[in-house]
Amino acid sequence: MSDIIRLLPDHVANQIAAGEVVQRPASVVKELVENSIDAGATKIELYIKDAGRTLIQIVDNGKGMSPLDARMCFERHATSKIAHADDLFTLKTKGFRGEALASIAAIAHVTLQTKRASDELGTKIQIEGTELVNQEPVQCAEGTNFEIRNLFFNVPARRNFLKSDNVEFKHIIDEFERVVLPHHDIAFRLVHNDQEIYHLLPAPLRKRIVDVFGRNFNDRLVPVTEHTDIVGLDGFVGKPEAAKKSRGEQFLFVNNRFFKDTYFNHAVSAAFEHLLPPKLFPSYFLFLEVDPKQIDVNVHPTKTEIKFEEDKAIYSIIRSAVRLGLGKFNITPTLDFDRESEFDLPLSMANQTPVMPEIRVDKTYNPFNVENTREGQLSGAESASGSSGFKNNGFSTALNNAGFGSQFQSSSLDELWNAEAVSQEAEEKPTQIQIEVETVKSVGPFILKGSFVIGSIPEGLLVFHYRRAYERMLYDEMMRGFFVNPLASQQLIFPMEKKLSKQEQLAWNEHEKTLSRIGFNWSWEEQELHINGIPEILDESTLLSCVDKILEQLQMGTLDKGEIAHTVLSQIAFAGSMSFKIPGNQEAISDFISRLFEADEHTFSPSGKRIIAQISNEELIQLF
Ligand code: ADP
Ligand code: MG
């Protein structure tokens, strides 16, 4: 029998390669724009027809090609960008495989016009499915102009698999965004079916982001920067309130090349932990600079996956830099824990004289309930002592008749917790409630329903989850106090004894400074933890479950010290909020809600649960 192995003809080999490189029109856009950037262009224009099916044209003012290069560039493995395998590890260019143009020319009708600055005349070349159709000298502008027509003309399967023009054009936009962000010093124009979609002038990064994603992005961006021997990191993250339900604007670049990386994506999400409700995604635009020797971009033909030698270190750097960035903008209560036992004052407090800790909370006393003594009394006579807006409108009587006491007795609490446990499972609505404090002052009158307080505003109704609001305020108050001084502790008459596992002991000991600063004091009897003092805000009845939760969180081990404080304080705030009582009159509720709105974060509880929901007038009308 004769031998059966043959070399594939070029056009077949190119078509096979094209299958990897060119999945859809957007891939062509990506490859061509990258080539223009590599050619040093400062201005790149794209003209697209029918989402790239009919035409993809790219015009650049880069360095152009000689007549021979113009012909060579369509050969497979033809590249000016690397000469040796070693060059792969010092890449400064986007391309290097010498595959893109050969692949594109195998599956489309291509016209190239190109001219170098030093040449009198340029070169025009036409290629159809790898076949050279025509080559001639031509008068043309300096730079390069590619026209790609009839993509996949000879690969019907691919052509038939293309999605609608809308979808394909969306892919083009995606690629466009990924390349214009890092190259903000280059001017870009994108025209689709004679309509100008983008016209971007050279600009600093922040301006480029705003030019691409819209003006309202400007207020949402928080700068992130960190430079170490391993990695340089610059860029922006979106503030938590700008987070979205979909992973829209999440961009990672390394040496100005877009890439996807679930591990680093997780680093960013981890930095946003507790700042975002579940199922919301932060936006980010992060640019890593890494020694090209430390990465391998050659793992995937379209090069969106990249291997990092130092990925673990980079993960931590991203996470802490983002956290720090958010902290600087007062979005998260980040503490400077670099020095073990010192606690720096936040800038806003630096000029204040420290005061003695003032969180002396009577366990039965609700600090926000100014009408604490009026339990259960809502009669007109009672309200004569000053509460306004509530008397003589029959409202209070109606409430009492309907069974809503002015305060919730603890007997009804258990029921509420159960109801809450269920409702916490339900998906949270993601929108932030932005309402001026002035407007809030005029919210009302309020009605009470379970742990909800419902108020009226001109735009509709605001529904508050009172316990969570209370939890948020307890947390904020403790966090503020914690910055300045250790929190107050109350001694237990009978120490709480708890046998800890080895891991739990280690976790407790590891964080002993933070725990004692928060108000715990304890001793050890062998493996047994004897808690003698607890944060004042904690009730003995919720102590055990709170300590369990704290231990559980501490053992996760990945928390940095700032997060430990957050974790412990949010557990304490949650436990402490169980003793909430909704005040008995309109004024006190109104006061409470005004104070809630004065807090930086009022829409979500420390654990990311929704505190306020808004029902617009339109939504109300639609109910009927
Ligand atoms: P690669 O980019 O991996 O080198 P390509 O097939 O994309 O491979 O391009 C082949 C070569 O063609 C490049 O190395 C470059 O020399 C040349 N080239 C492509 N596009 C341009 C352009 N817009 N301006 C100048 N030269 C270009
Ligand atoms: Mg290329």
Task: Note the overall shape.
Answer: elongated
What is the CA-CA span between the terminal residues?
84 Å
Could you give the order of strands across the largest sheet? 5-4-3-6-2-1-7-8
Distinct small molecules: adenosine-5'-diphosphate, magnesium ion
Fraction of residues in H or I helices: 25-40%
Q: Which segments are poorly predicted (pLDDT under 50) over 5 or more consecutive residues?
A: 332-363, 365-430
Total of helices: 20
Sheet with the most strands, sense and barrel status: 8 strands, mixed
The number of strands is: 22
Structural class of the secondary structure composition? alpha+beta
Percent range for β-strand residues: 15-25%
The residue-averaged pLDDT reads 77
- Over the alpha carbons, how many angstroms does the gyration radius reach? 32 Å
Tell me the layout of helices and strands.
Blueprint: H1 10-21, H2 25-38, E1 43-49, E2 55-60, H3 67-72, H4 100-106, E3 109-115, E4 122-128, E5 131-138, E6 143-149, H5 156-161, H6 165-180, E7 187-192, E8 195-200, H7 205-213, E9 221-227, E10 232-238, E11 250-254, E12 257-259, H8 262-271, E13 284-289, E14 295-296, E15 307-308, H9 311-328, H10 380-383, H11 395-401, H12 410-425, H13 437-441, E16 447-449, E17 452-457, E18 460-465, H14 466-484, E19 489-499, H15 502-510, H16 512-518, E20 521-525, E21 528-535, H17 540-555, H18 561-577, H19 586-598, E22 612-616, H20 617-622
Bound molecules: adenosine-5'-diphosphate and magnesium ion (MG).
